[in-house]
Amino acid sequence: MSNETWDLTALYPSIDSELFQKEEATVSHILRQMGFWCKGALGSTDDAVGKIESYLSIMHQLKSTFFCLKSYCMLRQSTDSADEQAAKAIHRLEEMEAGFAPVETAFCHWLLDVPQLEELAKDSPLIQDHLYYLTLLKQQASHQLSSAEEVLLSKLRPTGSLAFMKLWETASSDLIGQYRGQEKPISTLRAMAYDEDPAVRKDAFDAEQAALATISLPASAAMNGIKGEVLTVSRLRGYDSVLAMTLEQSRLEKDVLDAMMTAIDGAQETFRAYFRAKGRLLGHDDGLPFYDLFAPVTAVNRTYTYEEAKSYVIRQFATFSQELSDYAAHAFENHWIDPFPKQGKRGGAFCENLQPIGESRILANFTGSFNDVLTLAHELGHGYHGFCLNGISFLNSDYPMPIAETASTFCEILTKQAALKEAAPEEALQILESDVSDLAQILVDIPSRYRFEDAVFAERKNGPLSSRRLNALMEEAQKATYGNGLSCYHPQMWIIKPHYYDVDFNYYNFPYAYGLLFAEGLYHRYQSQPAGFAEKYHAMLASTGKGDLAYVASLMDIDIRDASFWKDAVESCLVRVRDLTKRLEERAKNSKTAPLQQCLRSKKHIFFDGKNHIV
Looking at residue 488, what DSSP letter applies? Predict the structure, then answer.
């Protein structure tokens, strides 16, 4: 495996560089000046247009520069948890970040007294362009505390929730498991869930559980600290619940969330039938054990080199849009991706859109599975979303969580559907299994995470939860969605999911379901009306910061308030689930498990021609 890594020099040469130091000092200076301006110049609403324009112009520069500084440091730390220089810089920046609170609080409170923003916008193209952003600031002001209280909260975060987040990141990034007498990073152990050997999957799962148990105490401390702070702040801001706060931040109505979750609940029995069928094929009569969720079901378990994955994704993206394909090629060629697992690097995958410089950076933990290829497609979809926002004001580039998962999921669907069309029968079965496995993660596992987080918030109100109680809540949530489809569960899943430990992203679970189902709806529109769709899709992604989710969906002629939209989107997923379940049941009837496992463990008798057909 190569030592390929991403190139961050487009942001800064180093933390010690003249550019980084200059911009850090500039942000600090402007923040102080903005504090004086808010105290002295705002005052009355006279010359409201001029004051709003000044605020927008300065905050655009200030926030975009600060974002680049902090992103650079956090990107460095995400691949090396022992990067002390980055950690110290992040600490300085987080302390500086507290300076935004009094400025934004003062302006938002002042903005409440400014009547008829729509009228002011007629005299100012800048205000017109930021009208929705300003409307959100007014909404935000209704939940703000006094300036002194906002400053206090902001100053306490680095030693509160952000410190707990770092505690979790450090503990999980450096975590090593003992696998058959060898030390393995936790990301490597989790990747073994896709191995063709059942003994490897089981041993890796056991090693993962043992390793997670060693950090359950700091993880539970981090969870309690973060969730406790969130509960306190949401209550102080006058929200009925953390979910209510999250929905407002997500620009999503509760009725829409309920309609989507109801549609998902109706799909669980279909997924449970799939889990049981897969279990029988793998030799489990009482349901599928958690460690076999991602087990291959065909002897064709194709793996990819990183170079093969690159060309594969670029080629599949081109079936939809040359612009999308060119974006992916550019990202690969210019080293925007850190692809491989290593000690000290955080697990999972993410994309950081660096909108101020018109680029993105993608972290992956690529080991060669088809699922890893899909992960690349997924994160490049996030990156393409950022590409569509190039040229947009930084203040208008912030879009809510649910729509954040749409472009990424759409790219996954494109990749899988294009791959299915060209695959030989056995490879098509592998791709279909991967597709349904991913659907299960979003429509079964994600709802379990939603239930878990809801339960944690409910119980955390009454005091901290022990790691044992968190394990119990996690297992209860999994049983509620997976049901009798599984024979055992993963009670320590809460320890390894980063979204639980991000104080700014509560309930980062239902957005994945929204992203999947909205993307499914978009894909079916594309299939039925391909002409001009890519251009319209690009325009929609460019507008995701300028309206609520209902508005964004309307740009594609979709009404998310209509429950039938969610039912139809779920049903389009279940068609593939039923298809795979039927195939697995037929295989289980027509073959013995032992030969299947033997075939999966040793492919010496399987050969392929140039088109990947079995011969």
Answer: S
Return phi, psi of residue 368, to 5°. 110, -5
Helix axes 100-112, 18-37, angle to 10 degrees: 40
CA distance 522 to 533: 9
How far apart are the C-alpha atoms of 344 and 174, rounded to whole Å?
A: 5
Rounded CA separation 285/295 (Å): 16
How far, in Å, CA of 161 to CA of 223, rounded?
A: 9
Q: Whole-angstrom Cα distance, residue 325 to residue 332?
A: 11
Place of tokens 């902001």: 154
Which residue matches tokens 């935004």?
Answer: 100
Residue 602: per-residue pLDDT: 41
pLDDT band at residue 315, thresholds of 50, 70 and 90? very high
Q: What is the DSSP string of 286-331?
A: T-B-GGGTT---SS------HHHHHHHHHHHHTTT-HHHHHHHHHH
Secondary structure letter of residue 363 according to DSSP: E
Distance (Å, rounded) from C-alpha 363 to C-alpha 430? 25
Pick the closest to residue 67 from 511, 393, 405 (CA basis): 393
C-alpha dihedral sign at 292, 294, 297, 303: negative
pLDDT (tens digit, 9 = 90+) per residue, 106-137?
899 899 888 889 999 998 999 999 999 999 99
Q: Cα(first)–Cα(last) distance of the chain, in Å?
A: 30
The model's pTM is: 0.84
Nearest CA to 342 among 228, 211, 185? 185
| Amino acid letter for position 380 | L
CA 458 to chain centre: 24
Nearest-5° angle of CA 122, CA 125, CA 131?
A: 75
**Radius of gyration of the CA atoms of the chain, in A:** 25
The one-character DSSP state at 442 is I
Q: In what order do the strands lie in the sheet with 337-338?
A: 337-338, 359-363, 350-354
- How far is it, in rounded angstroms, from Cα 190 to Cα 597? 20
DSSP string, 16-53: TSHHHHHHHHHHHHHHHHHHHHIIIIISSSTTHHHHHH
CA distances from 241 to 78, 397, 454, 584 (A): 31, 27, 10, 43
Instruction: Please give the structure tokens belonging to residue 175.
Output: 């975590």
* pLDDT tens digits, 342-387: 888 888 899 999 999 999 999 999 989 888 999 999 999 999 999 9
CA distances from 124 to 32, 104, 127, 500, 544 (A): 27, 21, 5, 41, 22
Residue 337 belongs to what H/E stretch? strand 337-338
d(CA 62, CA 31): 8
What are all long-range contacts of 569-572, with beta carbons under 8 Å and residues at least 24 apart?
569/263, 569/517, 569/518, 569/520, 569/521, 570/263, 570/264, 570/266, 570/267, 570/443, 570/517, 572/520, 572/524
**Would the pLDDT of 19 be above 50?**
yes
| DSSP-derived 3-state class of residue 530 | coil
d(CA 300, CA 249): 44
Structure tokens that stand for 153 in this block: 């909260």
**Assigned token pair, 105:** 């609080």
